[in-house]
Amino acid sequence: MRIAVTGREGQVVRSLVERAARHPSVHVVALGRPQLDLTRPGTIAETIRAAKPDLVVSAAAYTAVDRAEDEPDLAFAINVTGAGAIAEAAATIGVPVLHLSTDYVFSGEGEQPYTEKDRTGPRSVYGQSKLDGELAVAAANARHLVLRTAWVYSPFGGNFVKTMLGLAESRDVVSVVSDQWGNPTSAFDIADGILQVAERLRMDATFDAYGTYHLAGTGDTSWSSFAREIFAQSRRNGGPYAQVRDILTAEYPTRATRPLNSRLATEKFFDVFGWRAPHWQPSLVPVIGMLTGRH
């Protein structure tokens, strides 16, 4: 199977390329700027057609959550217009599109994990742009799979794990919010989930369970507890570590409002594709190992 994925340097893209190397029947083609530029929709259709994919993975996005509050036009251009153009390009050549989305499409109220049937209610420009992007993808390609995920980390790019380890290089104590809860998700696990979907599509010509799914790490925790686990694993590897001081979201104001509850229920994905991400703690081990030179 030939998979075209948008973006070249993103966490999921790089993880997918690495994981696909284990599957001789899968070839991943990463498409990025300048050939494919989501701010220039005219570059999208021809670039995707030339890649001759069996599946298009729409992974490139505007992800600067706080900056989006001041750059809404750019966020919507990439996350809505660009995402819709990718889905349309896939539809034009008769292939499905798998689009990555986020927990930020929800308001963050309550303490129960959100299911795919729960009401959305984004509280930030970024969240609204991703929700509108989901709708644009669905409208452009009937054979669409929207995968919402959360708290993504990897050895690549910028993410919470790398930020914590960087802070521990120069600080003995790090303050981290304790009242936001979610599912830490390794980008490697997202890649494995995508490959599971791709295999199902390859083997099942009658597959018709298109729509929205949640794909996130198993188990939930707070940001502060996540940080403690990062430092505990890093310390065991001889890497940097620090003490964690719990603070409330109100003590750490940000430009964009974050959901207090980012938990995602993943039963639907398991029921349809027969795969579930591992628990977030063991999934963290190889990433910490790579970042501390012990893997």
Automatic annotation (TrEMBL):
CDD domains linked to this entry: dTDP_HR_like_SDR_e (cd05254)
Pathway linked to the protein: Carbohydrate biosynthesis; dTDP-L-rhamnose biosynthesis
GO biological process assignments: dTDP-rhamnose biosynthetic process
Key words, A-Z: NADP, Oxidoreductase
Pfam family membership, one: RmlD_sub_bind
A Gene Ontology molecular function term of the record: dTDP-4-dehydrorhamnose reductase activity
Reactions catalysed, as given in the entry: dTDP-beta-L-rhamnose + NADP(+) = dTDP-4-dehydro-beta-L-rhamnose + NADPH + H(+)
Cofactor field: Mg(2+)
All residue ranges annotated as the RmlD-like substrate binding domain in the record: 1-288
Documented EC number(s): 1.1.1.133
Comment on bound cofactor: Binds 1 Mg(2+) ion per monomer.
PANTHER family named in the record: DTDP-4-DEHYDRORHAMNOSE REDUCTASE, METHIONINE ADENOSYLTRANSFERASE 2 SUBUNIT BETA
Sequence similarity: Belongs to the dTDP-4-dehydrorhamnose reductase family.
Function: Catalyzes the reduction of dTDP-6-deoxy-L-lyxo-4-hexulose to yield dTDP-L-rhamnose.
Protein name: dTDP-4-dehydrorhamnose reductase
Species in which this protein is naturally found: Phyllobacterium endophyticum
Gene that this sequence comes from: rfbD
